[in-house]
């Protein structure tokens, strides 16, 4: 299953803010637990759908240099005016070996780790009370990480570029605080990245699954939307939706791609046990 763009901490939209933090000044750190239910296609382009129920520890840190937040783990390299350069980390979960389906008889895919720079350009005014607009340009080398006798064996799998525009907003109601975050952008990958997911080697070709070699280029368009409800300073719920349109992608004619529409849905609940009394500006 390809978890492209769905990071470890993505379950928390805009992080856990309380009604008293409407001006986007949030705790320096937070800790708690969460659980998420997910509906996900087996991989981008697959007609098969799988379901997960995932408990997880929850931790947020909003330091000036190092941050652990809804976009993963990042290290701030450069921050001036409305331009910021981060080093960020993301990844994909493994694709299991299939007994039936498009990948039947083919080997499974190891977990994937992405690590590289992200250029962030703020379009809205800094210090805006509840709205944020920005352009983001993550460029990440990709490595698979097989576990052999408890020691990972990383292998370079190319790179992926995912430029996108992002909008975040907050609003208050009588029942609590709501947050919405959305993004729209395109994906690009090199040949090695696409080959890892969509190649069919001659040894695995069949009468209905011819050999195929992917090429570099356009990898689809992506829209994400996250709606969060903060019932109390401790309890929040998030609905996450991601849609990828694969029409026109360089690998769309791969025999293991039959669905040009990729839709993932996740519903998450988070309970925060502790949070810092010191607050920092979020956006």
Structure description:
Residues 1-23 have low confidence and may be disordered. The longest helix is centred in the C-terminal third of the chain and has 8 residues, at 191-198. The protein is built from one helix and 15 strands. The protein has 283 residues and is an all-beta fold. It has a single domain (19-281), classed as Beta Barrel (Outer membrane phospholipase (ompla), Chain C). It has one helix at residues 191-198, and strands at residues 25-27, 29-41, 49-62, 66-69, 72-80, 83-92, 112-122, 131-148, 151-161, 164-173, 176-189, 217-230, 235-245, 261-275, 279-281. 33% of the residues are buried.
Return the CATH architecture.
Beta Barrel
Principal-axis shape: globular
Mean pLDDT across all amino acids:
80
What's the order of the H and E elements? EEEEEEEEEEEHEEEE
Tell me the radius of gyration: 20 Å
Q: Stretches where pLDDT falls below 50 for ≥5 residues?
A: 1-23
CATH topology: Outer membrane phospholipase (ompla), Chain C
Number of strands: 15
The biggest sheet amounts to:
13 strands, antiparallel
- What's the number of structural domains? 1
């Amino acid at each position: 299953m390809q978890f492209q763009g769905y990071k470890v901490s993505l379950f928390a939209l805009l992080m856990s803010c309380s009604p008293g933090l409407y001006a986007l000044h949030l705790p320096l750190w937070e800790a708690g637990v969460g659980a998420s239910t997910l509906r996900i296609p087996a991989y981008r382009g697959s007609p098969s759908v799988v379901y997960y129920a995932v408990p997880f520890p929850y931790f947020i840190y909003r330091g000036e240099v190092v941050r652990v937040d809804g976009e993963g783990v990042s290290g701030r390299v450069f921050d001036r005016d409305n331009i910021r350069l981060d080093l960020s980390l993301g990844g994909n979960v493994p694709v299991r070996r299939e007994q039936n389906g498009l990948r039947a008889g083919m080997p499974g895919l190891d977990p994937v780790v992405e690590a590289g720079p992200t250029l962030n350009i703020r379009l809205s005014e800094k210090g805006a009370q509840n709205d944020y607009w920005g352009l983001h340009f993550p460029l990440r080398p990709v490595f698979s990480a097989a576990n052999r006798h408890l020691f990972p064996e990383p292998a370079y799998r190319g790179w992926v570029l995912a430029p996108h525009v992002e909008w975040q907003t907050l609003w208050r109601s009588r029942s609590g605080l709501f947050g919405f975050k959305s993004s729209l952008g395109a994906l690009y990958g090199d040949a090695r990245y696409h080959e890892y997911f969509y190649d069919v080697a001659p040894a695995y070709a069949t009468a209905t699954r011819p050999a195929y070699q992917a090429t570099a280029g356009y990898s689809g368009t992506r829209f994400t939307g996250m709606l969060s409800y903060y019932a109390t300073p401790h309890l929040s719920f998030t609905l996450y939706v991601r849609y990828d349109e694969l029409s026109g992608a360089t690998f769309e004619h791969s025999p293991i791609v039959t669905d040009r529409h990729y839709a993932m849905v996740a519903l998450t609940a988070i309970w925060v046990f502790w949070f810092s009394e010191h607050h920092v500006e979020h956006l």
